[in-house]
């Protein structure tokens, strides 16, 4: 029964996000699912089925990937309506997805260990070499410049500013990506984040070195 529901969910997500070019494609979702299940095993906590379902569906209602928040939520609700799961499980999945987004750095209290694990898995995929690649894919799709030294890094932002304010992909490292390691919830995720954090530091160092050589 559960295997069948997972299969159904995989097909749905693949159809929805398979062609995505912003770094939120099927491969991202699959990595988040695998990381989440790995953390679940390492921590020996949480319900693996709920974790897997929430990881698979976490980007379906994302407002960045839908015309409006309402359309995204309706898409998730309508899919969950089609599968035979108890309401308690469906509500838990929705609650996890609602609470794990970064949203400009505002701290949302995560009520369950499953939410902490899925959030960690999603954040791990936003850092390191893959995180760097995803940041530039998303920035390009959004029409953001790679870097402009005349733009300041934004410290405190409303959600509206975070989503729509003027920034660059290099600034995004300081506004979000470099902060994620310290916001992780589980010991396993923190360990996995170490080398990814170093990779971003090295990348930025090399980036500025090359930039200064050509713009000094």
UniProtKB/TrEMBL annotation:
Domain HD/PDEase, chain residue ranges per copy: 21-136
The organism's place on the tree of life at top rank: Bacteria
InterPro entries linked: HD/PDEase_dom, HD_domain
CDD domains: HDc
Gene3D superfamilies in the cross-refs: 1.20.58.1910, HD-domain/PDEase-like (1.10.472.50)
Pfam families from the UniProt entry: HD
PANTHER family: HD_PDEASE DOMAIN-CONTAINING PROTEIN (PTHR33594:SF1), SUPERFAMILY HYDROLASE, PUTATIVE (AFU_ORTHOLOGUE AFUA_1G03035)-RELATED (PTHR33594)
Name the UniProt record assigns to this protein: HD/PDEase domain-containing protein
Species this chain originates from: Neobacillus rhizosphaerae
Lineage, top ranks: Bacteria, Bacillati, Bacillota, Bacilli, Bacillales
């Amino acid at each position: 029964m559960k295997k069948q529901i997972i299969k159904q969910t995989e097909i749905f997500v693949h159809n929805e996000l398979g062609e995505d070019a912003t770094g939120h494609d099927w491969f991202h979702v699959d990595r988040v699912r695998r990381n989440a299940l790995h953390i679940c095993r390492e921590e020996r906590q949480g319900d693996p089925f709920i974790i897997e379902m929430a990881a698979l569906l976490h980007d379906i209602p994302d407002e960045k990937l839908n015309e409006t928040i309402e359309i995204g939520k309706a898409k998730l609700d309508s899919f969950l309506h089609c599968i035979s799961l108890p309401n308690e499980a469906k509500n838990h999945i929705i609650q996890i997805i609602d609470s794990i987004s970064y949203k400009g750095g505002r701290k949302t209290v995560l009520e369950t260990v499953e939410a902490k694990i899925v959030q960690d898995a999603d954040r791990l995929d936003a850092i390191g070499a893959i995180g760097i690649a995803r940041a530039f894919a998303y920035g390009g799709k959004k029409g953001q410049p790679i870097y402009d030294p005349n733009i300041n890094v934004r410290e405190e932002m409303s959600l509206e500013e975070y989503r729509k304010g003027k920034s660059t992909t290099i600034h995004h490292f300081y506004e979000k990506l470099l902060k994620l390691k310290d916001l992780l919830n589980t010991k396993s995720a923190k360990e996995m984040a170490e080398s990814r954090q170093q990779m971003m530091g090295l990348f930025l160092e090399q980036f500025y070195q090359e930039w200064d050589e050509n713009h000094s």
